[in-house]
Amino acid sequence: MSEHSDENDGDASDTSRRTFMKAAGVATTASAVGAGTGAAAADDDDDDGDEDGRDDRVEALLDDLTLEQKVGQMTQVAVGSFDPEPDGSNVPDSFGVDTVGEYFSELGVGSILSGGAAPPSFDAQTVVEGVNALQEYNVEQSDHGIPFLYGVDATHGNGLLEGATVFPQRMNMGATRNPALVEEAERHTSDSTASMGAHWTFAPTTDLQRDPRWGRFFEGISEDPKLEGDFSRARTRGLEDDDRLTSCVKHFAAYSIPNNGNDRAPASTSLRDLRTNVLPPYREALKAEPGTVMVNSGAVNGKPAHASHWLLTRLLRDHYGFEGLVVSDYDDLHRLVTNHDYVPDFRAGTREAINAGVDMYMIGNGGSAPGPVQFVETVVSLVEDGEIPEERIDEAVRNVLELKVDLGLFEAPTVDESRIGGVLGGARETSEEMARQSLVLLENAEETLPLSGDESVLLAGPGVDGDGNNTRALMQHGGWTLGWQGPSNGGPYPRQRLLSDELEARVGSLTHVPTYYDNSTWWAGQGTGENQQSDENGDFAFTDEQESAMRSAAPDADVVVLVLGEGSHNEGFGDRDELVLDESQQRLVDVVAEETDGETPVVGVVLAGSPRGSAETYDELDALLFAGQPGSDGGAAIAEALVGEYNPSGKLAFSWPRNPGTPVGTTPVQYYRYPPTSTGATDNTPLYRFGHGLSYTDFEYGEPSLSASGVDPSETDEVTLNVDVTNVGDRAGDHVVEVFDTQSYGSVLQPLRRLLGYDRVSLEPGETATVDLSLDLAALAVVPGDLLGLAPKVVEAGDYELTVGDDGPTTTLTVDSTGSTDDHDRFPVGGGPGKGHGPGGNGKGGNGKGREGDGDGDDEPDMDDVLDLLREVTGSS
Ligand code: NOJ
């Protein structure tokens, strides 16, 4: 589903047409627009405890706005071009600035977005000036002069501008096991994104990495809930750093577990799995107080997330205490009709979503889908007909306006246009260090790596930039980089350091034999009904000429480096049934194997957003470095690792399936699944385990000890494990120490292993460090009881075997008594403190914590609670 695929916006044409560029007089000075241009000013003299006057200002505006204007504030429209009438080839008219200008003056829309990392221009100065001009126009033309919020997808750095630093993708972030470094990167993203005039980034993605067939696998930090939660919290904190930028925890909740591996397919899971694994990362991220949350486009256990009052109101607001803005995903009210076939028409979908708790509709400017005018009219009529309570509208608009006040938009609607120049392309050291730490050395037979640096290197494969025009550098960035599906052939590009240049500077000589790669196939079938995606995520070839060039160059090489993998991709266009490398890459590997005949070492580097490749390929390689999508400084980091200037230290944050060529069998597979590992004839163990990652040196552990051998989870949520780590090899290196629970018994199945804590330590050869690891007892929590999975989550009493590293020394942690690490983790069943409207709320009201079994909050676990529970579970009312 392209976000630019709509042909026309029919529904703006009824409104009187004003030409935005004429009315705005093009980029007038930012200073012309300031506080008080019609917007209710803050009353600083208030005596109601509202120190910054926010509430007074918001309430005054709410009093003044008509119902239509309120719904306008709940509407987010797309801007894809600063041309009044875009050429229509890629950006439809309805995304042009003329139409958007009308949405301000006629509808008073509250927000704009440039989705898909595709702003109206990739030139930073053009963007910031254009956004300022739009804001000036909006503030002058709309009735109350309320500034708009501008949202973008700055998901791994500000990947929207030519020359920007793009950080390694999310799957690389997880491999670093270094949330502090990632937080530092997000602070740069915050600064850079705010400096270009945006106020809101749709990040962090907090969905667990569950299924590598899914086209958004690369957007997950890890399959592990603790890692996903730790990083998402750190990322949220980093992104919230600039006062003018807010973050968006998405996609709430359970977006990443589509039943069939396809984007926006429904998820079926159990309440036990949701509560133990899927929901905790979102909750962790919410602790860093993001301004906004985006809703999962899919459905969970038979209920579309956008229509789930339980998810968006009872869980998110009443139980988790979220007070910010809930935004829909793109076009998703309409998708309740088209994708989910859940309601017969847009009116019904709109009613369900707003009542469930959606505050703002990210709408696709019309075309084949209902546009902003229809949305506003539909909501107004639903309110007039009593199908949406007006208080729900006020609540939603309050959330929008409060965010605008918090971001200081009323005081300063526009941004200093000189700021972006000093920020663009910065944070180089952070970016390079992240890229380095994210590299995972999967194989290294007979110490093939590191290279000595004197070798004649033969370099080939689709991941290498080629033909003098940088076309292949695309694979190092991935989706959401200067375009929805990643950068296009021929650019523009982010700031980037390429492997061929970086390696050439570090070895005796370098010969590059290009092979063919084109990343535009995802678009090729657009509108024709033909398959628009390929399992390979790109179009690859190894032509006869290229093959003979390889055959003649290979015998002269001291070492062959093949950069393999998949093309950049995104959302549904990235979905695939197989994870093997495409045929031409397999043939390249075979040809090299034939020509080198086991004499010359062959090194593979994989650039991919998923576990690409199988044992069939890897058996022919002597060493294998998984580089993921390492971003701007990926080329330098890889070259450093190949020659040993950097000693690889990344750890896989997901399990690499053993048989990725088959759409059934071991995909998906998680390391924390329940026993048994293998049944029947197939081997269900992963090819590379979660936590796998080699080094050029060796590390040894001493005997671990615990700060307390017995703990009570109601008293503490942490215990410290101390362990000595020694670098027993002859090279300096970083080592990630991980502690797993590897054996325990309880009232329900225990996962094979689960990660409780991790840390990164740098050691010179022969050096020993004592590492104090904080172990998170919450990671041991289970939902006890029989099948339903409704009981409060607890850490059960018993002995837990802890193992340091993959199979290092062990120790035993005793949990003395069953208890919860978080008293407030009372799962909302029964009435809950519902608002008394919308499906799902029974208006009884609960206290959100209460005693076990006390669903209605009357402090008595009684028959009423049981009946409530039954109604909840059976869906009867
Ligand atoms: C749809 C995607 O699902 C979401 O992640 C993104 O933020 C929006 N489009 C805007 O581009």
Which helices and strands appear, and what pairs or packs with what?
Layout: H1 20-24, H2 54-64, H3 67-73, E1 75-78, H4 97-107, E2 111-114, H5 124-141, E3 149-152, H6 170-176, H7 179-195, E4 200-201, H8 225-239, E5 248-252, H9 271-278, H10 280-286, E6 292-295, E7 299-300, E8 303-304, H11 309-319, E9 325-327, H12 332-338, H13 346-356, E10 361-362, H14 372-384, H15 390-406, H16 419-423, H17 428-437, E11 440-444, E12 456-460, H18 499-504, E13 509-513, E14 516-518, H19 521-524, E15 539-541, H20 544-553, E16 559-565, H21 583-596, E17 602-607, H22 615-618, E18 623-628, H23 634-643, E19 699-701, E20 705-706, E21 710-711, E22 718-727, E23 733-743, E24 754-763, E25 768-776, E26 798-804, E27 810-815, H24 863-874
Helix pairs in contact: 2-15, 3-14, 3-15, 4-5, 6-17, 7-8, 7-17, 8-10, 11-13, 12-13, 13-14, 17-23
The protein binds 1-deoxynojirimycin.
1-deoxynojirimycin (NOJ) is lined by residues 3, 115-116, 153, 202, 250, 297, 329-330.
Structural notes for this entry:
The chain has 877 residues and is of the alpha/beta class. It has four domains: 14-422, TIM Barrel (Alpha-Beta Barrel), CATH 3.20.20; 439-666, Rossmann fold; 699-815, Immunoglobulin-like, CATH 2.60.40; 826-877, no CATH class. Helices cover 27% and strands 15% of the residues. It is built from 24 helices and 27 strands. It has a six-stranded mixed beta sheet with strand order 11-18-17-16-12-13. Strands 4-3-2-1-10 form a five-stranded parallel beta sheet. Strands 21-27-26-23-24 form a five-stranded mixed beta sheet, with no helix packed on it. The longest helix is centred in the N-terminal third of the chain and has 18 residues, at 124-141. The chain starts with 19 loop residues before the first helix and ends with a helix. The model is unreliable at 1-38 and 830-852 (pLDDT under 50). 1-deoxynojirimycin is lined by residues 3, 115-116, 153, 202, 250, 297, 329-330. Residues 31-41, 807-820 have a biased composition (Low complexity).
